[in-house]
């Protein structure tokens, strides 16, 4: 038994409350258990708060790490997101620097891709130009050898025939063939020289007043015989009252001849070739050459307008036509730019 005593002032009395020892021990145990519970809850709360607080502090660093891993994996569009609550200024600066670095890397990668595409495009264009020039020279070598072989052949015949056995008409015919072959060879060489002068920028144009009707009339007899042999119909329509134009008459005549001869070469027997001249805007004229030939596929239109360019379908034509087509188109387009 345990008693508790308390004195009452002024009266001289005292109060004693006896308490069994067993009851007091029970209450003491309850208080001890409650204290332990409170301490455990306080400890768990502290641990939880510390874990949450540490997570809030390390979240920006984790975001930078995740973004850097994605950047290393090739994701150039990755960026660190918005600022976090209670984010240290050092971590915020690190995130901003990372975003700036990622932006520069993406910009340089895009520039590298563009440069690589341009390089591949230029490489393809150079390879195509080299192939086109190689094919052009191969076909031209055939064209140059053809008249040379004719000249040598007829000259050899004249050399081997005894003078007393020569027939005047036969000799005249051989001489005419030699002259025609020589003229054709000279024209091929002149065309090649024109291309060289054009590429070197040394082709001078002689401008003057030109009557387009006279130019067309001069070109007609030159190509009419070739068209007749090929079974083709030639038509030309010059609108009346066309004004005089300022141009190089020689080069303009060459352009019209080249276009018509090219049309003759690529138009099958029984076809038709038309030449129309009509007024255009700004007191100019428009020259249109059309034919009923094989035509040019749409995907090859830009290709055939390049020097030495030709259509992919040109393998169906004769090698001679291909070489002439490349040569004449190159000269015609360059002269047109000057005229």
Give the topology, please.
Blueprint: E1 2-8, E2 13-19, H1 21-72, H2 89-160, H3 168-199, E3 208-210, H4 212-229, E4 233-238, E5 245-247, H5 249-265, E6 272-279, E7 285-291, H6 301-304, H7 319-338
Parallel strand pairs: 4-6
Antiparallel strand pairs: 1-2, 3-5, 6-7
Can you walk through the features of this model?
- The chain is built from 7 helices and 7 strands.
- With 339 residues, it is of the alpha+beta class.
- β6 and β7 form a beta hairpin.
- The radius of gyration is 49 Å and the shape is rod-shaped.
Q: How do you describe this structure in short?
A:
63% of the residues lie in helices and 12% in strands.
Largest sheet: 3 strands, mixed
Helix-and-strand structural type: alpha+beta
Mean pLDDT: 77
Spans with pLDDT under 50 lasting ≥5 residues? 314-339
Report the portion of residues in β strands: 5-15%
Q: What is the H-and-E element order?
A: EEHHHEHEEHEEHH
Number of helices: 7
State the separation between the terminal residues, measured CA to CA: 133 Å
Percent of residues in helices comes to: 55-70%
Rg for CA atoms:
49 Å
Lateral arrangement of strands in the main beta sheet: 4-6-7
**How many DSSP E strands?**
7
What general form does the structure show? rod-shaped
């Amino acid at each position: 038994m345990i008693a508790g005593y308390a004195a009452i002032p002024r009266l001289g009395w005292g109060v004693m409350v006896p308490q069994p020892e067993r009851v007091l021990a029970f209450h003491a145990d309850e208080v001890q258990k409650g204290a332990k519970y409170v301490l455990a809850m306080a400890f768990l709360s502290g641990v939880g708060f510390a874990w949450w607080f540490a997570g809030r502090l390390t979240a920006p660093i984790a975001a930078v790490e995740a973004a850097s891993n994605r950047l290393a994996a090739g994701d150039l569009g990755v960026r660190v997101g918005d600022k976090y609550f209670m984010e240290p200024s050092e971590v915020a600066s690190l995130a901003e620097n990372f975003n700036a670095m990622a932006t520069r890397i993406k910009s340089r990668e895009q520039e590298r891709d563009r440069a690589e595409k341009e390089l591949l495009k230029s490489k393809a264009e150079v390879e195509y130009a080299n192939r086109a020039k190689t094919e052009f020279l191969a076909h031209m070598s055939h064209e140059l050898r053809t008249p040379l072989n004719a000249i040598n052949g007829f000259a050899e015949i004249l050399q081997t025939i005894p003078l007393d056995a020569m027939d005047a008409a036969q000799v005249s015919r051989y001489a005419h063939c030699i002259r025609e072959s020589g003229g054709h060879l000279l024209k091929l060489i002149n065309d090649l020289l024109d291309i060289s002068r054009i590429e070197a920028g040394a082709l001078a144009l002689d401008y003057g007043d030109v009557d387009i009707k006279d130019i067309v009339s001069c070109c007609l007899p030159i190509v009419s015989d070739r068209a007749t042999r090929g079974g083709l119909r030639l038509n030309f329509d010059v609108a009346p009252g066309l004004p005089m134009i300022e141009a190089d008459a020689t080069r303009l005549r060459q352009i019209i001849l080249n276009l018509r001869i090219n049309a003759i070469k690529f138009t099958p027997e029984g076809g038709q070739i038309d030449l129309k001249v009509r007024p255009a805007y700004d007191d100019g004229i428009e020259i249109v050459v059309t034919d009923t030939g094989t035509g040019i596929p749409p995907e090859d239109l830009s290709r055939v307008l390049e020097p030495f360019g030709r259509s992919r379908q040109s393998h169906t034509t004769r090698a001679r036509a291909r070489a002439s087509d490349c040569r004449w188109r190159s000269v015609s387009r360059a002269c047109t730019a000057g005229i």
